[in-house]
Amino acid sequence: MSNSPRARALAKELRAARNEVGLSMRLVGKQLGWSEAKVSRVENAKQGIAESDVSAILAVLRVTGTDRDRLLKMAREIDQPVWWELGRELPEQLTALIDAEQRAVRITNASLNTIPGLFQTRAYTREIMVAGSVPDDEIDDHVSIRQVRQGVLSKQDPAELCSFVDETALLRPVGGARVMAEQLRKLVSAADAPNITLRVLPLEVGAHAGLSGTFVVMEFVRARPIVFLEGRSSGAFIDEPEDVSLFDEAVKSLDVQAADPASSVEIVSTYLKKYEGEAA
Predict the structure, then answer these.
(1) Which residues form the HTH cro/C1-type domain (predicted)?
(2) Which of 28, 110, 246, 273 could form a disulfide with 210 if both were Cys (CB 3.0 to 4.6 A apart)?
């Protein structure tokens, strides 16, 4: 098991499963005939591990049923390239973000200046990339990757998404009226999905917790939640519980300040009519 995003994901799941049953690394190692140091290396993706060893660990941790099947599948596929690794050299942070999105069961994001990436149209993303000075020969790849990432919302067992969008993102005419009309039509359509909740933060609420910057909270079946902080050319992951809790509090605050889902769609629809009129 190499120290790749996929390997680190499996390692985190195994560590979470051990913590859930309250066993120490020493006790797990004793039952497996391993040293405590080896268990630590496995749980930190510092050592390769065979599917049979993962099966043995799961037996010790009493993980059964669909959870066991899911983790064994992760172990089997640990060295198989996934779509974002094929023919591309992507930044490590982006591959880690994509992998986390693929595993997440719930995603909560707060977006201040732009429509969240998981909702963006190709034209809207392209305008963002151009404005961000992404090299011309890389724009098409970035646009395509962002589109394929959106598959986490429509796959067979899709992630739940709660998206807080500041009204300024609706007000800013990225790409002009036609691009915005297409973008907001997609946003309204997405909000109809049972796994998607759209919450607009109206201008009249004034200051809110999202003004500190865009963030994404991702929750998993067993591994503890993580937060991704998005920057201009890079990002950062946070997974320490006391740090993640600050963003949980921010989400609670946004939940109080944001318009309810029905009102949020009405706000977006008002801007959609405006842009459609300007594009006519």
Answers:
(1) 14-68
(2) 110
φ and ψ of 165, to 5 deg: -120, 125
CA dihedral 152, 156, 160, 161 (to 10 degrees): 40
Q: Which of 149, 145, 139, 84 is nearest to 118 (CA)?
A: 149
User: What is the arithmetic mean of pLDDT over 111-139?
Assistant: 92
Six-digit token string for 80: 């198989």
160-179 pLDDT per residue, tens: 999 999 999 999 999 999 99
| Euclidean distance between the first and the last CA atom of the chain, given in angstroms as a whole number | 56
Q: Which of 194, 74, 94, 71 is nearest to 145 (CA)?
A: 94
> Which sequence spans correspond to the domains of the chain?
5-80, 90-279
Q: Per the confidence metrics, is the pTM higher than 0.85?
A: no
The 8 Å CB, 24+ separation contacts for 133-141 are: 141/88
Can you tell me the distance from the alpha carbon of 184 to that of 179, in angstroms, rounded to the nearest whole number? 9
**Residue 268 neighbours by CB under 8 Å, 6+ apart:** 170, 184, 187, 188, 191, 198, 200
> Cα separation of 224 and 217, whole Å?
11
Domain 90-279 in CATH 1.20.1250: no
Sign of the Cα pseudo-torsion (75, 81, 83, 84, in order): positive
What stretch of H or E contains 237? Answer: strand 235-238
pLDDT at 84: 45
Residue 127 has pLDDT above 90, yes or no: yes
Stretch (H or E) spanning 164 = strand 160-166
How large is the greatest C-alpha to C-alpha distance in the chain, in angstroms?
Answer: 72
- Determine the CATH number of domain 5-80: 1.10.260.40
